[in-house]
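testing teh design pipeline on a random one, pls ignore if ur not involved
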């Protein structure tokens, strides 16, 4: 009768041992991991709810009735009527592109007109320009203007003023191809900070950092605390374990002996 022994793969045994060691470290340092994770999450919540000022965003929508995605040329009709085909060549005139409108919308000239009209105390052209965001709505001839500010009413006022001052500038340049189709309303809820997102990110970062710290402390700890540590580190069998008794247990046993 022959005994059959199941052969085990060394790689699988190594993976199993490594996973067991990882779980042992996590269990051993669980209090540290939980404490750091809770502290970072709590700190993020306190900062998001009580420290950071809420930022509101007001939006207005402009429509460009004549625009092209690429720079093109067109003929001046007045010169075309009076020209001599053999002497006077065609005179090309540039067509404004959507990106040109965006550049004009955030120009210093527009920002200066807005500041002169609103007279915001302590506000500069650069600071006002940093509040204003302008972007082209994808696959359309619409321009969305966004203004971020801690005051929701002021955010809506700035967004509308920027749009109408830009229309005034276009009329001065004899361009009437921009209209406001959706003025900005006063926002009712802030867009920043995203409290739930901040807390979730803080929780993940706290857990990751605390886990890394736990493994670092375990790596720096070179003491042997269990028979498994001796077998793993010294590669020698454990013959026996000497039980440990505290002084309190010793005193209790000695008292019991005198009785």
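output:
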């Amino acid at each position: 009768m022959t005994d059959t022994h199941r052969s085990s793969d060394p790689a699988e045994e190594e993976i199993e041992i490594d996973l067991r060691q990882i779980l042992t470290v996590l269990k051993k340092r669980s209090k540290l991991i939980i404490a750091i994770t809770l502290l970072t999450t709590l700190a993020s919540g306190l900062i998001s709810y009580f420290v950071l000022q809420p930022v509101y965003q007001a939006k207005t929508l402009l429509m460009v009735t004549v625009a092209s995605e690429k720079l093109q040329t067109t003929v001046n009709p007045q010169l075309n009527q009076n020209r001599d085909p053999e002497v006077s060549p065609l005179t090309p005139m540039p067509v404004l592109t959507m990106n040109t409108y965006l550049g004009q919308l955030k120009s210093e000239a527009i920002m200066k007109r807005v500041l002169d009209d609103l007279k915001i105390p302590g506000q500069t052209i650069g600071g006002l320009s940093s509040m204003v965001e302008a972007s082209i709505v994808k696959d359309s001839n619409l321009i969305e203007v966004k203004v971020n500010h801690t005051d929701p009413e002021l955010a809506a006022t700035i967004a509308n003023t920027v749009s109408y001052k830009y229309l005034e500038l276009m009329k001065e340049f004899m361009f009437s191809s921009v209209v406001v189709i959706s003025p900005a309303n006063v926002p009712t809820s802030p867009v920043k900070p995203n409290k739930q997102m901040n807390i979730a990110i803080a929780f993940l970062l706290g857990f990751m950092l605390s886990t890394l710290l736990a493994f670092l402390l375990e790596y720096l700890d070179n003491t042997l605390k269990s028979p498994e540590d001796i077998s793993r580190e010294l590669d020698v069998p454990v013959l026996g374990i000497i039980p440990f008794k505290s002084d309190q247990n010793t005193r209790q046993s000695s008292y019991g002996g005198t009785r």
